[in-house]
């Protein structure tokens, strides 16, 4: 797959412990053909990267972003039902962030894009890490925390320190419209730009495009996917400078 390569990033450690393979995060990355404008960390809770997700990463790289996805399940043997969230996910983000900085990317030119529970993490990253912008897709845990170590998003959103975009589907039972509205209100209390967008049905996943009949470019699901992707690209383009 042209442009893609594998690498690994060192986890942050304390003390003088020697490095081991368990202390590194496997990465899949793609670089732009020319000079990099910045970097995008893609958080995705799946052991495999779907073709639509890889296409999204490739498209981001074509826009000038070094795009890198940590393999979040690297600690867990397959198969495993362990959910990746909490300290381990943030440790993997920090390692990936450091990997981008080591490649000459400025901290305020690093964005984070997360899906599902990793989308929840993307918002929380934007409250605690020196990133330039964040995008969450279908982020859960809006009113009830996903873990003991993570606040509910309505409680975290007022503390956003980086511009944040949230994309939701109105028919997603994990993120009911009334909860999304509460999140929209909480985001408005922050000191940075925030935008929450809801789409009819479930057609808001840039990593999982709907099946659209041939020749039906006017299909609402296809139009929603195009709009969601455009918003992701525009958000990073506007805020990572």
UniProtKB/TrEMBL annotation:
Residues 1-24 are annotated as: Disordered. It comes from the Bacteria. Transmembrane segments: none annotated. GO terms for molecular function: hydrolase activity. Residues 29-239 form the Dienelactone hydrolase domain. InterPro entries: AB_hydrolase_fold, Dienelactn_hydro, Dienelactone_hydrolase-like. PANTHER family: ALPHA_BETA-HYDROLASES SUPERFAMILY PROTEIN, CARBOXYMETHYLENEBUTENOLIDASE-RELATED. This is Carboxymethylenebutenolidase.
């Amino acid at each position: 797959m042209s442009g893609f390569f594998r690498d690994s990033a060192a986890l942050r450690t304390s003390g003088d412990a020697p490095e081991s393979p368990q202390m590194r995060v496997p990465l899949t990355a793609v670089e732009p053909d020319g000079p990099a404008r910045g970097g995008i960390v893609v958080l995705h809770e799946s052991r495999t990267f779907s073709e639509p997700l890889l296409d999204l990463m490739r498209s981001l790289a074509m826009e000038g972003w070094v795009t890198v996805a940590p393999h979040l399940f690297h600690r867990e043997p397959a198969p495993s039902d362990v959910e990746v969230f909490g300290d381990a996910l943030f440790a993997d983000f920090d390692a990936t962030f450091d990997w981008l900085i080591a490649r000459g990317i400025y901290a305020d030119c690093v964005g984070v894009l997360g899906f599902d529970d990793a989308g929840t993490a993307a918002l929380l990253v934007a409250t605690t890490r020196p990133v330039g912008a964040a995008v969450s897709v279908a982020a859960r845990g809006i009113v009830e925390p996903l873990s003991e170590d993570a606040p509910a998003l309505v409680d975290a959103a007022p503390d956003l320190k980086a511009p944040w975009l949230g994309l939701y589907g109105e028919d997603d039972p994990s993120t009911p419209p009334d909860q999304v509205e509460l999140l929209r209100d909480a985001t408005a209390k922050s000191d940075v730009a925030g935008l929450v967008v809801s789409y009819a049905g479930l057609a808001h996943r840039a990593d999982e495009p709907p099946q659209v009949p041939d020749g039906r470019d006017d299909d609402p699901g296809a139009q929603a996917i195009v709009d969601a992707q455009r918003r992701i690209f525009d958000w990073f383009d506007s805020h990572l400078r």
